[in-house]
Amino acid sequence: MDHGSELLRVEGLQQIFQSGSKAVRAVDDISFSVFRGETFGLVGESGCGKSTTGRTIIQLYKPSNGKIYFEGTDLASLRGKKRWQQFRRDVQMIYQDPYGSLNPRIKIREIIAEGIDVHGLARNAKDRELQVAGLLETVGLNPEHANRYSHELSGGQRQRIGIARALAVQPKLIICDEPISALDVSIQAQIVNLLKKLQREKQLTYLFIAHDLSMVKYISNRIAVMYQGKIVELGEAKELYRSPLHPYTESLLSSIPYPDPDFEKHRNRLLYKQPAHTEESKLHEVVPGHFVFCAPSEVPLYQTKHELGATVSNTASPFLVSAAN
Ligand SMILES: Nc1ncnc2c1ncn2[C@@H]1O[C@H](COP(=O)(O)OP(=O)(O)OP(=O)(O)O)[C@@H](O)[C@H]1O
């Protein structure tokens, strides 16, 4: 893919939470860029630090270490109410839980118009109403939904409201934090298709956070795989799926159900156990644009690829420790 210019850059980001006497390294020195017009997928299993990364980018948390650049500006150096307000407009978030993220006490109209009001984007009440109606249509609902409450809508419709609310302020970047995980599979595809359509029409950029690799593959141009707070592999989506270089990526791919019962019955699941990385472990560019987290001496091992579903004894990778059906 021919990427646009860099919109977001995350550099050496670290987020450490204090949990009692223990320090939890939720995000542990990660770096990546998101380019205009692309969908950058951030995937990994629960607890790997994906949501914390998204929340730190929108500044819900102050980073423990590292830098976040938006349109080339280091957010730590962003000064003035106006510039912060612009940042809060430019970067929007769509949440995982369409049930919990919409205020049940106010009508959909007010939920969608919140950002329009905060940022003074409507000339008058009529213009505000027209904008709300237009946004509802954009996300596949009708203007009549403005008079309803969120509990009167289905999960998919609620997620559409979440998308309309984000679109209302014409953002440059939307952080989609597991936007489909709480939905039925058939609805998931509809929401992903809607996001893709909106991206084409409005030149949107997405940071798409998910644990469901099959949908991430479908929507993302590039993907970073997170494991225990670190990015262990980063590359073009197609390449990463065709030939994953990091064993953790392979184990994630092996857990995607394949729509063939016979294949499923005989396939092996790969489980990943983290090796003891040395101090020098870091992202290495193994092929152009494709990075893998490992110590320098381990790099050649990753170049031994094997077919998905192969038994462990067939693999040369030392980190695929067991197989289970
Ligand atoms: N505010 C917090 N205080 C303490 N620990 C936290 C906090 N937020 C997250 N964590 C911990 O940080 C780690 C990463 O959490 P995070 O929610 O970012 O993971 P995730 O990959 O998004 O998982 P999930 O999909 O389940 O939300 C977890 O161990 C979590 O318990």
TrEMBL record:
It holds the Pfam family oligo_HPY. The keyword Transport applies. Keywords: ATP-binding, Nucleotide-binding, Transport. It comes from the Bacteria. Residues 8-253 form the ABC transporter domain. InterPro entries: AAA+_ATPase, ABC_transp_ATP-bind, ABC_transporter-like_ATP-bd, ABC_transporter-like_CS, Oligopep_ABC_C, P-loop_NTPase. The keyword Manganese does not apply. One of its GO terms (biological process) is transmembrane transport. GO terms for molecular function: ATP binding; ATP hydrolysis activity. Belongs to the ABC transporter superfamily. This is Peptide ABC transporter ATP-binding protein.
